[in-house]
Write a sequence for this structure.
């Protein structure tokens, strides 16, 4: 259900938490007549699985963020396959990744270190925009 894939009110942040998901996943916040549509229980075309954005540990997330920041990437969208870290844990991971990236490749900061983050705890998805 791509109509649900807007993560922010102002439209700055897009997400894919409802794109190519299974019946079990969509049933978290949708209901439908299951007799009208074919059953979906496969995940290989899920946005996160297909794009290597499905993580099971906080360390995997941190490595992904550092690698992206070093390449100049400013927006990230990921999904957790295991227990979802809480907001404070994720904030610490993002801050650490930003600081590590800056120290490793720049003598002066190229951004002020602020970020916008959107968590969807039900779906275990996270969207981040670094400013």
């Amino acid at each position: 259900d791509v109509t649900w894939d807007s993560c922010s009110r102002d439209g700055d942040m897009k997400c894919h938490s409802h794109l190519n998901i299974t019946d079990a996943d969509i049933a978290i916040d949708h209901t439908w007549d299951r007799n009208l549509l074919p059953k979906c229980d496969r995940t290989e075309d899920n946005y996160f699985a297909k794009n290597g954005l499905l993580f099971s540990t906080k360390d995997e997330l941190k490595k992904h963020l550092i690698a992206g920041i070093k390449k100049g990437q400013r927006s990230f969208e990921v999904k957790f396959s295991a227990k979802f870290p809480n907001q404070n844990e994720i904030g610490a991971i993002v801050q650490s990744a930003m600081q590590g990236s800056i120290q490793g490749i720049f003598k002066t900061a190229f951004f002020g270190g602020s970020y916008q983050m959107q968590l969807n705890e039900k779906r275990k998805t996270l969207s981040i925009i670094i400013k």
User: Anything to note?
Assistant: The longest strand covers residues 75-80. Confidence is low (pLDDT under 50) at residues 105-111.
